[in-house]
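In practice, a research group might receive sequence data for several interacting partners and want a quick structural hypothesis before committing to experiments. The following worked case mirrors that situation: the sequences arrive first, and a predicted assembly follows.
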Amino acid sequence: MAAGNDHQDIKREKILEASHQRFLHYGYSKTTMNEIAGDLSMSKALLYYYFPDKSQLYIAVMRKLSNDYLKVLEDHLDTFKNLKEAFVFQTNIHHDFIVSNYNFFDFFRLNEQNLPDTIWEIVNQVHSAELALLSKAVKTEIERGSIKPVDNPDELVDLLLDALHGIRVGALSQKKTNFPRKEHLEEIHDKKLLLIDIFIKGLMY
Amino acid sequence: MAAGNDHQDIKREKILEASHQRFLHYGYSKTTMNEIAGDLSMSKALLYYYFPDKSQLYIAVMRKLSNDYLKVLEDHLDTFKNLKEAFVFQTNIHHDFIVSNYNFFDFFRLNEQNLPDTIWEIVNQVHSAELALLSKAVKTEIERGSIKPVDNPDELVDLLLDALHGIRVGALSQKKTNFPRKEHLEEIHDKKLLLIDIFIKGLMY
DNA sequence: TTTTGATAGTTTTGTTAAAAAAGTCAGGAA
DNA sequence: TTCCTGACTTTTTTAACAAAACTATCAAAA
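A structural hypothesis for the assembly, expressed as tokens:
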């Protein structure tokens, strides 16, 4: 029975990988269950044996990506000399994550307003984890005595994450799209680092 | 001939007012030229005598609103003791502007990605004006010696305006919509003021 | 110069049929 | 019992097209 579950898990993993590739290259609406099944040389019906429906499959891929992302954060975020390094690291990892999965998020751009609740649960889960980790970093820094004590570290980190999230390219007379274009990601990343620099200074004595 | 132009201007003004009301209550796509004409007890054809088409009419209203907004900024922005007051004032006025014209911007939410170029020209014009005014305030503050000199004040102000623009409500497990809902505007406003506070401190010695 | 009724042209909306894709299921293989 | 499939049903997307609603134009009147 344990062996059976192992095998099942491996198969699920294979399906997730194939799905990831398809979603990454063609986006959600342009990949069909038949194509994913074809890539794996299995029947479409088998996909439905492992996953209840297409959206759940997409969500499973997303959950996997999110967990990988959070894993990297958790593994490194304790190891920094100071708060700024922690935020810079988070922003760098986040940047890499978005760049390498850019097309995967076509789904977000298309549905925009009304995404399924489960998606939002994952987004919120990631956000909460980021918040907790960075909040901890803030507290550590306060104990070190290099920044002023604050009432509510969570609120503070939330504010900075929001502000960072809002950074868009807008080099004057440029249309600011609400979802950044791939070619602007580097510029946005640079601006984020600058914001972090100033923000953290604003917290110091 | 001068009198004729006066009369024409008054009429144009009346049309803009009526259009503003309609756009404010029902949004762009839900107001028809017939309705605007009806409100003014004139024929629809006359609207086309004064304005080339519907989108130009909307844009004319928007330009008027923008100019009013910029006027307030220009009139007051020289009168502040310090940089923070200037930014707080800008943010407050901006907040009031959005709150009182909220439904007018339905047009933005609907078209989202592909707004006509003329709209973007106005947006950029407003942004440039804000940038210039606040940039001047930064330079003044540097001369006063209360903040550190910076390479490029424009870039700095742009960064803060971007960051402020990105502030969204997100009180955990809340869906972050890209266009803020009316009921969240106050909370967003408060967060903006907090960000300004920290950001400006980050610029000080 | 200003205004309008009539009308031309365009976009939106609604309907329907065909095609494509999602999703189900009885039953066979391991 | 678990894993898997072909054939099938249901749902969604697409295309074509007519009706309705609305934008935009224009000759002619005030």
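Before designing any experiment, note the following. Chain B has nine helices and no strands. Residues 32-34, 44-45, 48, 52-54 of chain B lie near DNA strand D (CB under 10 Å from a C1').
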